[in-house]
User: What shape does this take?
Amino acid sequence: MDYSSEDDFDNYIQERINVQRRISTRKVIRDFQNPFDYYSANEFKSRYRFSKDIVLNILLPLINADLLKVTSRGLPVPPIYQLLVALRFYSSGSFQIITGDLIKVSQPTVSRIVKRVSYLFCLKMQRFVKFSSNLETIKEQFYSIGSFPGIIGAIDGTHIPIQNPGGSYAEVFRNRKKYFSINVQIVCGPDLQIYDIVADRPGSVHDNRIFQASTLKRKMEQGIIDGILLGDSGYGCQKYLLTPVLQPETVSEENYNKAHIKTRNTVERTIGVWKRIFPCLSKKLATNLTTTCHIIVATSVLYNICRSHGIVEEIDDIGYTTTTRQNIRNTQAYNREGLLFRRLFITRHF
Assistant: This one.
């Protein structure tokens, strides 16, 4: 190549140097620290909550095809790294910028990854979060816990803290404990599996109101799901949802309350273990409301996968919580038919 002057040659050399500098600063796949090679089996599991085999052979196939459809422009983050970024966020609850630093991606990229992966796991909810097809076995397993017959699930609500969502309806998300939250309804089984979840109600909405508007209530009323749920005294007593007796006066009512407390404790343990496995649920989620709801449901899907593969963390000393007497009086006055059924149920079984 001919150059008319020495200055032209110098300019050409400088331009090539600049191009090489730009190329060297671009992030490619080999720049990432490969967690599968870098961490031991125990270290990997403690950081991502799943073993390497489960991540590669179970979780990744669930969302891999959809992640590949997103974009192929530039240097996209491979699906396996997107999955690991989301799992690390769920299992640590740390700031997204810290999660991104682990594989050298920016905070906005982490935000998009968490949003995308959470949505894809939400699409798998009907496959992994559902009642057992063999309810008779579930009733037997619950009976072995506290000798309470006919039970197919325990129900309760839990608050997932969020940042102030802003806007004219922000105060709707402030709960009775004065912080912003999503009130999540959980129904669990005797093995602490999550059977049903409602994760889109503001923190100010009462547990009983969430249940009254739920699909689960309609299915139980129509007999699609046959059995009885156990709930605390914040719920209205129904034929298919039994609550504790406020002031037991007989030995039968005391025995009923003891069996109720012992059996319903499964849902409190479930919520505790769920939040222990995924600490992001115990910290203020700073994502937008839609993504926040997707994160909650996605972690419930992952939690059930954890339990089905024996990945659990037990929590001790989770106490039984009671509601105020005023709340109980209100629900009792509103559900006389349910209270009559409860009285006959106690007479027959306790």
Summary: DSSP finds 15 helices and five strands in the chain. The beta strands are 151-161, 181-188, 194-202, 228-230, 241-242. The longest strand covers residues 151-161. The two ends are 99 Å apart (CA to CA).
